[in-house]
Amino acid sequence: MLPKTKTKKKKEKPVKLKDKKGLFNWSLVKITATAMIIVCTALLITTEQDCNKKERELAHIQAKIDEYSIENEDLKRTLESDDLSAYMEKVALEEYHYAYPDERRFYDTSRD
Q1: What is the average pLDDT across 85-89?
Q2: SS3 label, residue 101
Q3: Do 82 and 76 meet the contact criterion of CB atoms below 8 Å apart?
Q4: What is the separation of C-alpha 16 from the centre of its chain, rounded to a whole number of angstroms?
Q5: Is 50:56 a contact under the CB 8 Å cutoff?
Q6: How many Å apart are CA 21 and CA 27, to the nearest integer?
Q7: What is the pLDDT of residue 77?
Q8: What's 7's DSSP letter?
Q9: CA angle, 70 as apex, 64 and 74 as ends, to 5°?
Q10: CA-CA to 102 of 20 to 30 Å: which in 46, 51, 55, 82?
Q11: What is the distance between the alpha carbons of residues 78 and 72, in angstroms, rounded to a whole number?
Q12: CA 75 – CA 68 distance, rounded (Å)
């Protein structure tokens, strides 16, 4: 007879419990959480871009308001000075390109 040798016993792996097919599925929770993080990140980025765009528009509109307030002050000073004929002459010459009866105007038509 042969002498008995000790044989190593294999360690048994713990048996994993199978995923339950109930209402609470961990893979579904992980997928939902990932989707929510992606959606929230996208919303945050688009909201930030919209805010930056609106701030640029606000700055542009504020610059226009400043221009109009300066022009308004100039018009108020003109009206208070009771010299409307000078103002009317200025508007006629600059905005409507009127000329005096004896005035000659020459225009360069050689440019494109």
Answers
A1: 83
A2: coil
A3: no
A4: 52
A5: no
A6: 11
A7: 87
A8: P
A9: 140
A10: 82
A11: 10
A12: 10
Out of 4-13, 20-29, 99-108, pick the least confident.
Answer: 4-13
| 29-74 pLDDT tens trace | 899 999 999 999 999 999 999 999 999 999 999 999 999 999 999 8
Distance CA 86, CA 89 (A): 5
Residue 106 has φ and ψ, to the nearest 5°, of: -115, 135
What are the structure tokens assigned to 59, written together?
């700055």
- Interacting residues of 87 by C-beta distance below 8 A, sequence separation 6+: 78, 79
Domain ranges of the chain: 31-94
**Smallest Cα–Cα separation from 74: which of 95, 93, 91, 99?**
91
